[in-house]
Specification:
The protein is an alpha/beta fold and 373 residues long. It is built from 15 helices and eight strands. Helices cover 49% and strands 11% of the residues.
Length: 373
């Protein structure tokens, strides 16, 4: 449900204050949103992404610059491949959609590719919704929406998302298309990269479902997306249908768990600002005023991961060892607590985690004793 006008205006002003004076907001894309949904307990990432803070600049200002991201060469190669896939009115792309997802339909000899140009993200979102409605009502025809703009409510703040393409089938159903530059080798690709693409596509599907719910015709958003990649080591496109029902369900559940951005903002000290231009100590204090939920998985998804890892290690938090380890240790939240429980100094012996630790400590002592004989 959208915020009342005055309340929403106040929140936008508050988020602008958090970014800093004259600092433009960084758009929250589907890649970042999928990473945020994978760690819903991290209030730090939620407020920084919600306020549009550039976390890469922030990490550099904190002295812990991020080291991941696509190179300029990879971006150029990816853009060139996408242009090739969409050439000639998307003829090859639509052929792949027909072959992999909808062979029962008439082949896409001709397709409509509407102009989605509009002013600002709100205008582009409205234009996309209008074209989706018209394409759905035009039964029996194929329509390709090139870089449509979708909106998704995230913790009380709208996120504007731009999938590579959305195809409207002759039966009125909708398919998300993801175009990636990593190769399909012998028909398969790196599972980790495919999984990341599936999680990103799940965000687009959720946004499309919100659009579909507003239309009288209630079109079906397909849960099998088309992943298009270069074939082997060539620049020729190949495609695979990817079922993202699991990723969609997980993402929807995790997004619902996110603390509303306005609630996090209300808890921050007055005058808090995350501008990279601030002095180091003041900026560090501002970042540390928002609780984080660091895990090793953050290293591949968040620009602030190195900063948060350092703080997590300094605090002796067991989350720095990974979520599975944290889950096994129950109420023991620090390495010091774990070692004390293993030595029998603290902890309830009836606690399964404490009992397992003491048993492991005893076995280690026996092994060391045997090795010294």
């Amino acid at each position: 449900m959208p915020l009342p006008r005055t309340r929403g205006t106040a929140l936008r002003q508050r988020l602008a204050e958090l970014r800093g004076p004259d600092v433009p907001a960084k758009a929250l894309d589907a890649r970042a949103l999928a990473a945020l949904a994978a760690n819903p307990g991290c209030a730090r990432r939620a407020i920084l992404d919600g306020a549009g803070v550039n976390k890469a600049d922030l990490a550099s200002a904190l002295g812990s610059p991020s080291v991941f991201g696509q190179s300029q060469f990879a971006l150029t190669r990816g853009n060139a491949f996408e242009a090739k896939v969409k050439a000639d009115g998307g003829a090859e792309l639509l052929r792949l959609v027909h072959e992999k997802l909808d062979r029962a339909a008439e082949p896409p000899a001709e397709a409509r590719v509407p102009d989605l140009t509009a002013s600002g993200p709100q205008g582009r979102t409205a234009r996309t919704e209008l074209e989706l409605r018209e394409a759905t009502e035009r039964s029996g025809a194929w329509t390709l929406l090139d870089h449509p703009m979708l909106a998704l409510d995230v913790a009380g703040s709208p996120a504007f998302l731009e999938p590579d393409a959305v195809v409207v089938h002759p039966d009125g159903s909708w398919t998300v298309v993801e175009i990636k530059s990593f190769p399909l080798l012998d028909g398969s690709a790196d599972p980790a990269k495919v999984g990341a693409a599936a999680r990103q596509a799940a965000v687009y599907v959720l946004a499309l479902e919100e659009v579909a719910a507003r239309l009288e015709s209630s079109p079906r958003v397909r849960h099998r997306i088309l992943l298009v990649c270069p074939r082997d080591f060539s620049n020729l496109p190949a495609a695979s249908a990817v079922d993202i029902r699991k990723q969609r369900a997980v993402t929807a559940r995790q997004l619902a768990r996110l603390t509303r951005i306005e609630d996090i903002a209300e808890e921050l000290p007055e005058g808090t600002c995350f501008s990279p231009e601030l002095p180091g100590e003041e900026l560090t204090a501002a970042v540390e005023s928002v609780p984080a939920a660091y895990a090793p998985e953050c290293l591949s998804t968040c620009e602030l991961a190195f900063h948060c890892r350092t703080r997590s290690r300094e605090a002796g938090a067991v989350t720095s060892l990974g979520r599975p380890v944290r889950a096994e240790l129950g109420g023991l939240s620090t390495v010091e607590d774990v070692l004390a429980a293993a030595r029998g100094e603290t902890g309830d012996p009836s606690d399964p985690a404490v009992a397992a630790l003491r048993r492991a400590a005893a076995l280690r002592a026996e092994a060391l004793e045997a090795a010294c004989r």
